[in-house]
Protein backbone atom coordinates (compact mmCIF):
# COMPACT_ATOMS: atom_id res chain seq x y z
CA UNK A 1 0.00 0.00 0.00
CA UNK A 2 1.33 3.40 -0.92
CA UNK A 3 2.06 5.83 1.86
CA UNK A 4 0.21 9.11 2.22
CA UNK A 5 3.33 11.04 1.24
CA UNK A 6 3.67 9.15 -2.05
CA UNK A 7 0.05 9.94 -2.97
CA UNK A 8 0.70 13.69 -2.86
CA UNK A 9 1.24 15.51 -6.16
CA UNK A 10 4.85 16.03 -7.20
CA UNK A 11 4.62 19.84 -6.98
CA UNK A 12 3.25 19.62 -3.46
CA UNK A 13 6.07 17.32 -2.34
CA UNK A 14 8.66 19.62 -3.90
CA UNK A 15 7.09 22.59 -2.13
CA UNK A 16 7.16 20.76 1.20
CA UNK A 17 10.84 19.93 0.70
CA UNK A 18 11.76 23.57 0.05
CA UNK A 19 9.92 24.55 3.23
CA UNK A 20 11.41 21.75 5.35
CA UNK A 21 14.00 22.26 8.06
CA UNK A 22 16.36 19.97 6.13
CA UNK A 23 16.41 22.21 3.05
CA UNK A 24 16.75 25.35 5.16
CA UNK A 25 19.85 23.84 6.81
CA UNK A 26 21.27 23.05 3.37
CA UNK A 27 20.63 26.61 2.18
CA UNK A 28 22.12 28.19 5.29
CA UNK A 29 25.16 25.91 5.09
CA UNK A 30 25.67 26.76 1.41
CA UNK A 31 25.61 30.49 2.18
CA UNK A 32 27.97 30.04 5.13
CA UNK A 33 30.52 27.84 3.34
CA UNK A 34 30.42 30.05 0.24
CA UNK A 35 31.45 33.04 2.33
CA UNK A 36 34.05 30.99 4.22
CA UNK A 37 35.68 29.66 1.04
CA UNK A 38 35.79 33.11 -0.56
CA UNK A 39 37.36 34.59 2.57
CA UNK A 40 39.87 31.77 3.12
CA UNK A 41 41.07 32.07 -0.47
CA UNK A 42 41.13 35.86 -0.52
CA UNK A 43 42.81 36.47 2.84
CA UNK A 44 45.86 34.45 1.76
CA UNK A 45 46.12 36.50 -1.45
CA UNK A 46 45.64 39.77 0.44
CA UNK A 47 48.36 38.95 2.98
CA UNK A 48 50.82 38.05 0.23
CA UNK A 49 50.03 41.28 -1.63
CA UNK A 50 50.37 43.39 1.51
CA UNK A 51 53.81 42.06 2.39
CA UNK A 52 55.40 42.49 -1.00
CA UNK A 53 54.75 39.02 -2.51
CA UNK A 54 56.22 37.33 0.56
CA UNK A 55 54.57 34.31 2.20
CA UNK A 56 55.58 35.46 5.70
CA UNK A 57 52.22 36.93 6.75
CA UNK A 58 50.37 33.96 5.26
CA UNK A 59 52.56 31.56 7.22
CA UNK A 60 52.05 33.53 10.44
CA UNK A 61 48.29 33.57 9.86
CA UNK A 62 48.22 29.81 9.29
CA UNK A 63 50.25 29.19 12.43
CA UNK A 64 48.01 31.45 14.53
CA UNK A 65 44.83 29.78 13.24
CA UNK A 66 46.13 26.25 13.84
CA UNK A 67 47.47 27.10 17.29
CA UNK A 68 44.25 28.83 18.34
CA UNK A 69 41.99 25.92 17.40
CA UNK A 70 44.44 23.47 18.96
CA UNK A 71 44.34 25.30 22.30
CA UNK A 72 40.74 26.54 22.29
CA UNK A 73 38.91 23.71 20.51
CA UNK A 74 37.78 22.03 23.73
CA UNK A 75 36.77 25.36 25.30
CA UNK A 76 34.71 26.32 22.23
CA UNK A 77 33.01 22.93 22.27
CA UNK A 78 32.26 23.23 25.98
CA UNK A 79 30.66 26.64 25.35
CA UNK A 80 28.52 25.07 22.62
CA UNK A 81 27.38 22.35 25.05
CA UNK A 82 26.50 24.67 27.93
CA UNK A 83 24.37 27.20 26.06
CA UNK A 84 21.04 27.03 24.20
CA UNK A 85 21.33 25.95 20.58
CA UNK A 86 19.81 29.05 18.99
CA UNK A 87 21.95 31.38 21.09
CA UNK A 88 25.14 29.49 20.16
CA UNK A 89 24.36 29.43 16.44
CA UNK A 90 23.27 33.06 16.20
CA UNK A 91 26.15 34.36 18.33
CA UNK A 92 28.71 32.41 16.30
CA UNK A 93 27.12 33.64 13.06
CA UNK A 94 27.16 37.30 14.09
CA UNK A 95 30.71 37.19 15.47
CA UNK A 96 32.09 35.37 12.43
CA UNK A 97 30.50 37.59 9.80
CA UNK A 98 31.11 40.81 11.74
CA UNK A 99 34.79 39.90 12.07
CA UNK A 100 35.08 39.24 8.32
CA UNK A 101 33.29 42.50 7.51
CA UNK A 102 35.55 44.46 9.88
CA UNK A 103 38.63 42.75 8.52
CA UNK A 104 37.53 43.48 4.94
CA UNK A 105 37.02 47.17 5.73
CA UNK A 106 40.42 47.34 7.44
CA UNK A 107 42.09 45.73 4.41
CA UNK A 108 40.37 48.24 2.12
CA UNK A 109 41.84 51.07 4.19
CA UNK A 110 45.30 49.48 4.10
CA UNK A 111 45.20 48.93 0.33
CA UNK A 112 43.99 52.49 -0.26
CA UNK A 113 46.47 54.25 2.05
CA UNK A 114 49.38 51.80 2.22
CA UNK A 115 51.98 54.38 1.10
CA UNK A 116 50.89 56.88 3.75
CA UNK A 117 50.73 54.22 6.47
CA UNK A 118 54.28 53.10 5.66
CA UNK A 119 55.68 56.54 6.43
CA UNK A 120 53.75 57.08 9.69
CA UNK A 121 55.54 56.19 12.94
CA UNK A 122 58.36 54.50 11.01
CA UNK A 123 55.96 51.89 9.63
CA UNK A 124 54.70 50.75 13.04
CA UNK A 125 51.15 51.81 12.20
CA UNK A 126 51.16 49.53 9.16
CA UNK A 127 52.58 46.70 11.26
CA UNK A 128 49.77 47.27 13.76
CA UNK A 129 47.28 46.95 10.89
CA UNK A 130 48.85 43.62 9.93
CA UNK A 131 48.49 42.38 13.51
CA UNK A 132 44.87 43.55 13.66
CA UNK A 133 44.03 41.83 10.37
CA UNK A 134 45.49 38.50 11.51
CA UNK A 135 43.85 38.79 14.94
CA UNK A 136 40.39 39.62 13.59
CA UNK A 137 40.66 36.93 10.91
CA UNK A 138 41.59 34.42 13.61
CA UNK A 139 38.51 35.43 15.64
CA UNK A 140 36.40 34.83 12.53
CA UNK A 141 37.92 31.37 12.15
CA UNK A 142 37.22 30.47 15.81
CA UNK A 143 33.61 31.61 15.41
CA UNK A 144 33.39 29.54 12.23
CA UNK A 145 34.61 26.52 14.21
CA UNK A 146 31.87 27.04 16.79
CA UNK A 147 29.30 27.41 14.00
CA UNK A 148 30.48 24.22 12.32
CA UNK A 149 30.31 22.22 15.56
CA UNK A 150 26.86 23.59 16.36
CA UNK A 151 25.20 23.07 12.96
CA UNK A 152 27.01 20.11 11.38
CA UNK A 153 27.56 18.06 14.55
CA UNK A 154 24.43 18.90 16.58
CA UNK A 155 21.57 20.55 14.66
CA UNK A 156 21.83 18.03 11.82
CA UNK A 157 21.51 15.15 14.32
CA UNK A 158 18.43 16.68 15.95
CA UNK A 159 16.73 17.46 12.61
CA UNK A 160 17.36 13.89 11.42
CA UNK A 161 15.86 12.50 14.63
CA UNK A 162 16.16 8.75 15.12
CA UNK A 163 16.40 8.07 11.37
CA UNK A 164 20.04 7.08 10.81
CA UNK A 165 19.57 6.83 7.04
CA UNK A 166 18.27 10.40 6.98
CA UNK A 167 21.28 11.48 9.05
CA UNK A 168 23.65 9.79 6.58
CA UNK A 169 21.91 11.49 3.63
CA UNK A 170 22.09 14.89 5.33
CA UNK A 171 25.80 14.45 6.14
CA UNK A 172 26.52 13.46 2.54
CA UNK A 173 24.58 16.43 1.15
CA UNK A 174 26.39 18.84 3.46
CA UNK A 175 29.71 17.41 2.28
CA UNK A 176 28.74 17.75 -1.39
CA UNK A 177 27.94 21.42 -0.72
CA UNK A 178 31.42 21.76 0.82
CA UNK A 179 33.04 20.23 -2.26
CA UNK A 180 31.20 22.45 -4.72
CA UNK A 181 31.76 25.70 -2.82
CA UNK A 182 35.44 24.83 -2.36
CA UNK A 183 35.85 25.01 -6.14
CA UNK A 184 33.30 27.62 -7.24
CA UNK A 185 33.70 30.29 -4.52
CA UNK A 186 37.45 30.90 -5.09
CA UNK A 187 36.80 31.04 -8.85
CA UNK A 188 34.30 33.88 -8.36
CA UNK A 189 36.36 35.99 -5.99
CA UNK A 190 39.50 35.32 -8.06
CA UNK A 191 37.81 36.71 -11.16
CA UNK A 192 36.61 39.76 -9.23
CA UNK A 193 40.14 40.50 -8.02
CA UNK A 194 41.60 39.79 -11.47
CA UNK A 195 39.30 42.11 -13.44
CA UNK A 196 38.80 44.60 -10.63
CA UNK A 197 41.27 45.05 -7.79
CA UNK A 198 42.05 43.82 -4.30
CA UNK A 199 40.16 46.84 -2.98
CA UNK A 200 37.02 45.78 -4.88
CA UNK A 201 37.55 42.18 -3.75
CA UNK A 202 37.57 43.24 -0.08
CA UNK A 203 34.44 45.30 -0.59
CA UNK A 204 32.63 42.44 -2.34
CA UNK A 205 33.46 39.93 0.42
CA UNK A 206 32.38 42.38 3.13
CA UNK A 207 29.10 43.06 1.34
CA UNK A 208 28.47 39.35 0.80
CA UNK A 209 29.01 38.56 4.47
CA UNK A 210 26.62 41.34 5.51
CA UNK A 211 23.91 39.99 3.20
CA UNK A 212 24.65 36.37 4.14
CA UNK A 213 24.58 37.11 7.88
CA UNK A 214 21.07 38.58 7.71
CA UNK A 215 19.70 35.74 5.60
CA UNK A 216 21.39 32.99 7.64
CA UNK A 217 20.10 34.55 10.87
CA UNK A 218 16.56 34.30 9.50
CA UNK A 219 17.11 30.71 8.27
CA UNK A 220 18.39 29.60 11.69
CA UNK A 221 15.27 31.02 13.31
CA UNK A 222 13.03 29.20 10.79
CA UNK A 223 14.81 25.86 11.34
CA UNK A 224 14.51 26.37 15.10
CA UNK A 225 10.78 27.00 14.76
CA UNK A 226 10.22 23.96 12.52
CA UNK A 227 12.17 21.61 14.82
CA UNK A 228 10.83 21.82 18.40
CA UNK A 229 13.42 19.29 19.59
CA UNK A 230 16.13 21.94 19.13
CA UNK A 231 14.69 23.82 22.11
CA UNK A 232 15.55 20.94 24.46
CA UNK A 233 19.20 20.28 25.18
CA UNK A 234 20.40 17.52 27.49
CA UNK A 235 23.36 19.36 28.98
CA UNK A 236 21.44 22.59 29.46
CA UNK A 237 18.48 20.77 31.03
CA UNK A 238 20.71 18.89 33.46
CA UNK A 239 22.45 22.12 34.50
CA UNK A 240 19.10 23.82 35.09
CA UNK A 241 17.85 20.84 37.14
CA UNK A 242 21.00 20.89 39.26
CA UNK A 243 20.63 24.62 39.91
CA UNK A 244 16.94 24.25 40.80
CA UNK A 245 17.72 21.34 43.12
CA UNK A 246 20.49 23.32 44.81
CA UNK A 247 18.15 26.29 45.36
CA UNK A 248 15.46 24.02 46.82
CA UNK A 249 17.97 22.46 49.22
CA UNK A 250 19.11 25.90 50.33
CA UNK A 251 15.50 27.01 50.88
CA UNK A 252 14.59 23.91 52.89
CA UNK A 253 17.79 24.12 54.95
CA UNK A 254 17.29 27.80 55.62
CA UNK A 255 13.86 27.13 57.15
CA UNK A 256 15.26 24.42 59.45
CA UNK A 257 16.76 25.10 62.85
CA UNK A 258 18.84 21.91 62.97
CA UNK A 259 22.44 22.98 63.77
CA UNK A 260 23.90 20.06 61.80
CA UNK A 261 22.00 21.07 58.66
CA UNK A 262 22.99 24.67 59.30
CA UNK A 263 26.66 23.70 59.35
CA UNK A 264 26.20 21.78 56.09
CA UNK A 265 24.68 24.89 54.55
CA UNK A 266 27.67 26.93 55.70
CA UNK A 267 30.03 24.38 54.13
CA UNK A 268 28.10 24.47 50.86
CA UNK A 269 28.14 28.26 50.91
CA UNK A 270 31.89 28.27 51.52
CA UNK A 271 32.38 25.84 48.64
CA UNK A 272 30.29 28.02 46.32
CA UNK A 273 32.35 31.07 47.31
CA UNK A 274 35.51 29.08 46.66
CA UNK A 275 34.25 28.00 43.24
CA UNK A 276 33.37 31.59 42.32
CA UNK A 277 36.66 33.05 43.50
CA UNK A 278 38.93 34.89 41.10
CA UNK A 279 41.56 32.13 40.92
CA UNK A 280 38.92 29.50 40.28
CA UNK A 281 37.43 31.51 37.43
CA UNK A 282 40.86 32.12 35.90
CA UNK A 283 41.77 28.44 35.90
CA UNK A 284 38.41 27.30 34.51
CA UNK A 285 39.61 27.27 30.86
CA UNK A 286 42.54 25.04 31.87
CA UNK A 287 40.18 22.62 33.61
CA UNK A 288 37.86 22.66 30.61
CA UNK A 289 40.79 21.92 28.31
CA UNK A 290 41.89 19.00 30.49
CA UNK A 291 38.35 17.63 30.98
CA UNK A 292 37.69 17.80 27.25
CA UNK A 293 40.75 15.75 26.31
CA UNK A 294 40.06 13.24 29.08
CA UNK A 295 36.44 12.89 27.92
CA UNK A 296 37.65 12.43 24.34
CA UNK A 297 40.06 9.69 25.42
CA UNK A 298 37.30 7.87 27.33
CA UNK A 299 34.92 7.81 24.36
CA UNK A 300 34.08 4.49 22.75
CA UNK A 301 34.90 6.05 19.36
CA UNK A 302 38.33 7.32 20.48
CA UNK A 303 40.28 5.19 18.00
CA UNK A 304 37.88 6.11 15.19
CA UNK A 305 38.43 9.82 15.90
CA UNK A 306 42.19 9.36 16.11
CA UNK A 307 42.16 7.52 12.79
CA UNK A 308 40.51 10.52 11.13
CA UNK A 309 43.04 12.93 12.67
CA UNK A 310 45.97 10.87 11.34
CA UNK A 311 44.71 11.40 7.79
CA UNK A 312 45.60 15.10 8.15
CA UNK A 313 49.31 14.23 8.44
CA UNK A 314 49.78 14.04 4.68
CA UNK A 315 51.11 15.99 1.72
CA UNK A 316 48.80 14.05 -0.62
CA UNK A 317 46.16 16.72 -1.03
CA UNK A 318 45.48 19.73 -3.23
CA UNK A 319 47.17 22.39 -1.15
CA UNK A 320 50.05 24.78 -1.87
CA UNK A 321 52.60 22.04 -1.08
CA UNK A 322 51.37 19.55 -3.65
CA UNK A 323 50.77 22.20 -6.30
CA UNK A 324 54.27 23.58 -5.68
CA UNK A 325 55.75 20.13 -6.24
CA UNK A 326 53.60 19.71 -9.36
CA UNK A 327 55.18 22.87 -10.77
CA UNK A 328 58.66 21.41 -10.38
CA UNK A 329 57.44 18.41 -12.36
CA UNK A 330 56.30 20.48 -15.34
CA UNK A 331 52.58 20.97 -14.69
CA UNK A 332 51.14 24.43 -15.33
CA UNK A 333 48.19 26.24 -13.79
CA UNK A 334 45.73 25.09 -16.43
CA UNK A 335 46.47 21.42 -15.83
CA UNK A 336 46.34 21.92 -12.07
CA UNK A 337 42.89 23.51 -12.31
CA UNK A 338 41.64 20.49 -14.26
CA UNK A 339 43.14 18.15 -11.67
CA UNK A 340 41.42 20.06 -8.86
CA UNK A 341 38.12 19.75 -10.71
CA UNK A 342 38.66 16.01 -11.05
CA UNK A 343 39.46 15.86 -7.35
CA UNK A 344 36.17 17.59 -6.50
CA UNK A 345 34.23 15.14 -8.69
CA UNK A 346 36.02 12.25 -7.01
CA UNK A 347 35.09 13.64 -3.59
CA UNK A 348 31.43 13.91 -4.60
CA UNK A 349 31.53 10.31 -5.82
CA UNK A 350 32.89 9.35 -2.40
CA UNK A 351 29.96 10.99 -0.60
CA UNK A 352 27.46 9.24 -2.88
CA UNK A 353 29.27 5.92 -2.40
CA UNK A 354 29.09 6.38 1.38
CA UNK A 355 25.29 6.47 1.45
CA UNK A 356 24.99 3.44 -0.86
CA UNK A 357 27.59 1.27 0.93
CA UNK A 358 26.19 2.18 4.33
CA UNK A 359 22.75 0.92 3.35
CA UNK A 360 24.23 -2.35 2.07
CA UNK A 361 26.93 -3.06 4.65
CA UNK A 362 26.29 -0.89 7.71
CA UNK A 363 28.18 2.13 9.01
CA UNK A 364 31.21 0.48 10.64
CA UNK A 365 31.89 -1.80 7.67
CA UNK A 366 31.60 1.23 5.37
CA UNK A 367 34.58 2.80 7.16
CA UNK A 368 36.54 -0.44 6.73
CA UNK A 369 35.80 -0.58 2.99
CA UNK A 370 36.63 3.13 2.55
CA UNK A 371 39.94 2.68 4.38
CA UNK A 372 40.96 -0.25 2.18
CA UNK A 373 39.98 1.70 -0.94
CA UNK A 374 41.99 4.76 0.10
CA UNK A 375 45.11 2.78 0.99
CA UNK A 376 44.92 0.83 -2.27
CA UNK A 377 44.77 4.03 -4.32
CA UNK A 378 47.64 5.59 -2.37
CA UNK A 379 49.87 2.72 -3.50
CA UNK A 380 49.99 4.56 -6.83
CA UNK A 381 51.57 7.50 -4.97
CA UNK A 382 54.17 5.18 -3.45
CA UNK A 383 54.91 3.79 -6.91
CA UNK A 384 55.41 7.34 -8.19
CA UNK A 385 58.40 7.73 -5.88
CA UNK A 386 60.46 5.24 -7.92
CA UNK A 387 58.76 5.76 -11.30
CA UNK A 388 60.58 7.39 -14.25
CA UNK A 389 60.70 11.16 -13.89
CA UNK A 390 60.75 11.13 -10.08
CA UNK A 391 63.30 13.55 -8.55
CA UNK A 392 63.57 11.35 -5.43
CA UNK A 393 67.21 11.20 -4.37
CA UNK A 394 68.33 10.02 -0.94
CA UNK A 395 71.86 11.29 -1.56
CA UNK A 396 70.54 14.86 -1.33
CA UNK A 397 70.13 15.90 2.28
CA UNK A 398 66.57 17.06 3.00
CA UNK A 399 68.01 19.75 5.28
CA UNK A 400 70.12 21.45 2.58
CA UNK A 401 67.43 23.98 1.73
CA UNK A 402 66.77 24.80 5.40
CA UNK A 403 70.47 25.31 6.15
CA UNK A 404 70.87 27.50 3.06
CA UNK A 405 68.07 29.82 4.20
CA UNK A 406 69.35 29.92 7.77
CA UNK A 407 73.08 30.34 7.22
CA UNK A 408 73.33 31.61 3.68
CA UNK A 409 74.71 30.11 0.52
CA UNK A 410 78.38 29.42 -0.27
CA UNK A 411 78.09 31.22 -3.56
CA UNK A 412 76.90 29.03 -6.42
CA UNK A 413 73.26 28.45 -7.19
CA UNK A 414 71.84 24.94 -7.28
CA UNK A 415 71.04 23.47 -10.67
CA UNK A 416 67.73 22.07 -9.45
CA UNK A 417 64.66 24.18 -10.20
CA UNK A 418 64.03 27.07 -7.82
CA UNK A 419 60.44 27.82 -6.88
CA UNK A 420 59.37 31.40 -7.52
CA UNK A 421 55.78 31.61 -6.31
CA UNK A 422 53.53 34.39 -7.47
CA UNK A 423 49.82 34.86 -6.86
CA UNK A 424 47.96 34.91 -10.15
CA UNK A 425 44.21 35.42 -9.62
CA UNK A 426 43.49 34.85 -13.33
CA UNK A 427 44.06 31.13 -12.78
CA UNK A 428 40.79 29.65 -11.53
CA UNK A 429 42.19 27.47 -8.78
CA UNK A 430 42.56 27.81 -5.03
CA UNK A 431 46.30 27.38 -4.99
CA UNK A 432 49.64 29.11 -5.40
CA UNK A 433 50.74 29.06 -9.02
CA UNK A 434 54.08 29.78 -10.64
CA UNK A 435 55.53 31.81 -13.43
CA UNK A 436 56.78 29.10 -15.80
CA UNK A 437 56.76 25.35 -15.41
CA UNK A 438 60.15 23.69 -15.96
CA UNK A 439 60.61 20.87 -18.45
CA UNK A 440 61.07 17.29 -17.19
CA UNK A 441 62.17 14.09 -18.90
CA UNK A 442 59.11 11.99 -18.02
CA UNK A 443 55.64 12.67 -16.63
CA UNK A 444 55.13 9.09 -15.45
CA UNK A 445 55.90 9.86 -11.81
CA UNK A 446 53.68 12.93 -11.46
CA UNK A 447 50.84 11.20 -13.35
CA UNK A 448 50.94 8.26 -10.93
CA UNK A 449 51.06 10.67 -7.99
CA UNK A 450 47.96 12.64 -8.96
CA UNK A 451 46.11 9.55 -10.16
CA UNK A 452 46.55 8.10 -6.67
CA UNK A 453 45.61 11.35 -4.92
CA UNK A 454 42.45 11.85 -6.99
CA UNK A 455 41.30 8.22 -6.77
CA UNK A 456 41.96 8.13 -3.02
CA UNK A 457 39.49 10.99 -2.49
CA UNK A 458 36.63 8.53 -2.95
CA UNK A 459 37.76 6.46 0.03
CA UNK A 460 38.87 9.54 1.97
CA UNK A 461 35.50 11.31 1.93
CA UNK A 462 33.57 8.08 2.54
CA UNK A 463 35.77 7.43 5.56
CA UNK A 464 35.42 11.01 6.79
CA UNK A 465 31.62 10.75 6.66
CA UNK A 466 31.75 7.40 8.45
CA UNK A 467 33.73 8.75 11.39
CA UNK A 468 31.60 11.91 11.48
CA UNK A 469 28.41 9.88 11.80
CA UNK A 470 29.97 7.53 14.36
CA UNK A 471 30.73 10.54 16.55
CA UNK A 472 27.23 11.93 16.00
CA UNK A 473 25.57 8.65 16.94
CA UNK A 474 27.74 7.53 19.85
CA UNK A 475 28.59 10.73 21.73
CA UNK A 476 25.91 11.75 24.21
CA UNK A 477 24.08 14.99 23.48
CA UNK A 478 25.55 16.88 26.44
CA UNK A 479 29.14 16.23 25.20
CA UNK A 480 28.78 16.67 21.43
CA UNK A 481 30.31 20.12 21.45
CA UNK A 482 33.38 19.44 23.56
CA UNK A 483 34.16 16.09 21.89
CA UNK A 484 33.92 17.61 18.41
CA UNK A 485 35.98 20.57 19.62
CA UNK A 486 38.76 18.22 20.72
CA UNK A 487 38.43 16.34 17.43
CA UNK A 488 39.01 19.60 15.56
CA UNK A 489 42.05 20.24 17.76
CA UNK A 490 43.47 16.82 16.91
CA UNK A 491 42.92 17.46 13.20
CA UNK A 492 44.71 20.80 13.40
CA UNK A 493 47.57 19.26 15.41
CA UNK A 494 48.31 16.63 12.77
CA UNK A 495 47.88 19.21 10.01
CA UNK A 496 50.38 21.46 11.77
CA UNK A 497 52.84 18.58 12.04
CA UNK A 498 52.61 17.94 8.32
CA UNK A 499 53.59 21.56 7.60
CA UNK A 500 56.53 21.24 9.99
CA UNK A 501 57.55 18.08 8.13
CA UNK A 502 57.59 20.02 4.85
CA UNK A 503 59.60 22.87 6.40
CA UNK A 504 62.27 20.37 7.46
CA UNK A 505 62.43 18.79 3.99
CA UNK A 506 61.36 21.41 1.42
CA UNK A 507 63.41 20.39 -1.65
CA UNK A 508 61.75 18.37 -4.47
CA UNK A 509 64.28 15.54 -4.07
CA UNK A 510 62.84 14.83 -0.60
CA UNK A 511 59.19 14.90 -1.66
CA UNK A 512 59.22 11.15 -2.24
CA UNK A 513 60.20 10.68 1.40
CA UNK A 514 57.28 12.89 2.43
CA UNK A 515 54.96 10.74 0.31
CA UNK A 516 56.13 7.57 2.06
CA UNK A 517 55.74 9.18 5.50
CA UNK A 518 52.26 10.44 4.56
CA UNK A 519 51.09 7.01 3.39
CA UNK A 520 52.53 5.51 6.59
CA UNK A 521 50.45 7.88 8.74
CA UNK A 522 47.34 7.13 6.68
CA UNK A 523 48.00 3.41 7.17
CA UNK A 524 48.42 3.88 10.93
CA UNK A 525 45.18 5.81 11.03
CA UNK A 526 43.28 3.05 9.29
CA UNK A 527 44.88 0.44 11.55
CA UNK A 528 43.38 2.33 14.49
CA UNK A 529 39.99 2.25 12.79
CA UNK A 530 40.33 -1.46 12.00
CA UNK A 531 40.98 -2.09 15.69
CA UNK A 532 37.87 -0.10 16.60
CA UNK A 533 35.77 -1.89 13.98
CA UNK A 534 36.99 -5.37 14.99
CA UNK A 535 36.29 -4.72 18.67
CA UNK A 536 32.84 -3.27 17.94
CA UNK A 537 31.72 -5.98 15.53
CA UNK A 538 33.06 -8.78 17.74
CA UNK A 539 31.20 -7.40 20.75
CA UNK A 540 27.96 -7.15 18.76
CA UNK A 541 28.31 -10.74 17.54
CA UNK A 542 28.91 -11.91 21.11
CA UNK A 543 25.87 -10.02 22.38
CA UNK A 544 23.76 -11.45 19.55
CA UNK A 545 24.77 -14.99 20.48
CA UNK A 546 24.35 -14.40 24.25
CA UNK A 547 21.15 -12.45 24.94
CA UNK A 548 21.69 -12.64 28.70
CA UNK A 549 25.01 -10.78 28.45
CA UNK A 550 24.88 -7.17 29.58
CA UNK A 551 26.09 -4.72 26.95
CA UNK A 552 29.54 -3.22 27.35
CA UNK A 553 29.19 0.56 27.90
CA UNK A 554 32.50 1.12 26.07
CA UNK A 555 31.12 -0.31 22.82
CA UNK A 556 28.78 1.67 20.52
CA UNK A 557 25.36 0.12 20.97
CA UNK A 558 23.31 1.55 18.10
CA UNK A 559 22.11 -1.28 15.86
CA UNK A 560 22.39 0.82 12.70
CA UNK A 561 26.09 1.44 13.33
CA UNK A 562 26.90 -2.14 12.32
Automatic annotation (TrEMBL):
<protein>
    <recommendedName>
        <fullName>Solute carrier family 40 member</fullName>
    </recommendedName>
</protein>
<feature type="transmembrane region" description="Helical">
    <location>
        <begin position="510"/>
        <end position="530"/>
    </location>
</feature>
<dbReference type="GO" id="GO:0017046">
    <property type="term" value="F:peptide hormone binding"/>
</dbReference>
<comment type="function">
    <text>May be involved in iron transport and iron homeostasis.</text>
</comment>
<dbReference type="InterPro" id="IPR036259">
    <property type="entry name" value="MFS_trans_sf"/>
</dbReference>
<keyword id="KW-0812">Transmembrane</keyword>
<feature type="transmembrane region" description="Helical">
    <location>
        <begin position="368"/>
        <end position="387"/>
    </location>
</feature>
<keyword id="KW-0406">Ion transport</keyword>
<feature type="transmembrane region" description="Helical">
    <location>
        <begin position="59"/>
        <end position="80"/>
    </location>
</feature>
<feature type="transmembrane region" description="Helical">
    <location>
        <begin position="335"/>
        <end position="356"/>
    </location>
</feature>
<keyword id="KW-0813">Transport</keyword>
<dbReference type="GO" id="GO:0016323">
    <property type="term" value="C:basolateral plasma membrane"/>
</dbReference>
<dbReference type="GO" id="GO:0005381">
    <property type="term" value="F:iron ion transmembrane transporter activity"/>
</dbReference>
<dbReference type="InterPro" id="IPR009716">
    <property type="entry name" value="Ferroportin-1"/>
</dbReference>
<keyword id="KW-0408">Iron</keyword>
<keyword id="KW-1003">Cell membrane</keyword>
<keyword id="KW-0472">Membrane</keyword>
<feature type="transmembrane region" description="Helical">
    <location>
        <begin position="123"/>
        <end position="143"/>
    </location>
</feature>
<comment type="similarity">
    <text>Belongs to the ferroportin (FP) (TC 2.A.100) family. SLC40A subfamily.</text>
</comment>
<keyword id="KW-1133">Transmembrane helix</keyword>
<feature type="transmembrane region" description="Helical">
    <location>
        <begin position="92"/>
        <end position="111"/>
    </location>
</feature>
<keyword id="KW-0479">Metal-binding</keyword>
<feature type="transmembrane region" description="Helical">
    <location>
        <begin position="294"/>
        <end position="315"/>
    </location>
</feature>
<dbReference type="GO" id="GO:0046872">
    <property type="term" value="F:metal ion binding"/>
</dbReference>
<dbReference type="Pfam" id="PF06963">
    <property type="entry name" value="FPN1"/>
</dbReference>
